[in-house]
Design a protein that fits this description.
By secondary structure, this protein is an all-beta fold. 0% of the residues lie in helices and 46% in strands.
Length: 193
């Protein structure tokens, strides 16, 4: 038996929400682009109790020319995300290469750490052409990031662990990562054939 209930978010209307499952609660977030006092984008981030009531609403501010995406709670009150800082000037090759960071935030949006993925020595082979990410998942004190055609593993402190290779004949290119109940991570990709 299922029950549908409309949740109230303080009377404010939102265009769209993304829902995230945490350890013992749900989270919802919505992007807001500019306006207000700072004219900078932000994310309204909601902590939702099991009964559907909003426990807390926080505003996660973003910088100019940046975005937070792939938000993922870790079950311990932290949120991991990919911070994308848009290139506004071409590099020496005339290309515009964004910078990507793994960030760990509190539920209130306070940054606990930021790791420059595009500047990491261990990931230089992925930076040869154009570096991009497809998402991340946090599970069992580890963070997995789908980037270019690899899956990159970090521990919860942001320390690089290793680059995971797909099975022979496979690729993580464009992979979406999903946490499984047994602590494993599934990668789903799409192919033309």
């Amino acid at each position: 038996v299922y029950q549908v209930e409309e949740l109230s978010f303080g009377g404010q209307e939102y265009q769209s929400f993304s829902l995230l499952k945490g350890k013992d609660r749900l989270y919802a977030y919505s992007y807001n682009y500019g306006g207000g006092e700072t004219n900078l984008p932000w994310i309204d981030f909601f902590c939702i109790n099991e009964d559907g009531t909003v426990k807390e609403k926080n505003k996660m501010m973003m910088d100019e020319n940046s975005n937070l995406n792939s938000l993922c709670p870790d079950g311990n009150g932290n949120v991991y995300a990919i911070k994308n800082i848009y290139a506004t000037e071409p590099n020496e090759d005339g290309m515009y290469q964004d910078e990507f960071y793994l960030v760990k935030l509190t539920e209130k949006g306070d940054e606990l750490y930021s790791i420059n993925l595009t500047g990491m020595r261990e990931l230089q082979e992925l930076n040869e052409d154009y570096f991009y990410t497809n998402g991340l998942v946090a599970i069992d004190n580890n963070v997995y990031i789908s980037a270019v055609d690899k899956c990159i593993k970090f521990d919860e402190q942001g320390n690089f662990v290793k680059i995971l290779e797909a099975a022979e004949g496979g690729s993580f290119d464009g992979a979406t990562l999903y946490p499984l109940a047994d602590g494993k991570v599934a990668a789903i990709t799409y192919e033309e054939d």
